[in-house]
Amino acid sequence: MDYIILDDDITITELKLTSKINRQTVLTSGLRKEYKLNIIALEHEKKATTDK
Asked: In angstroms, how far is CA 45 from the centroid of its own chain?
């Protein structure tokens, strides 16, 4: 996967989600709390969104 390193603490990368969090919202998935991830965009059926 492609990634961009902005500095020692910040990297932007694309992640593919597993079935473990399928059908969960960003909030209920716990990704931010557990992995300290900030989601900046979502892609579904080749359409990307950056809001909501």
From this structure: 15
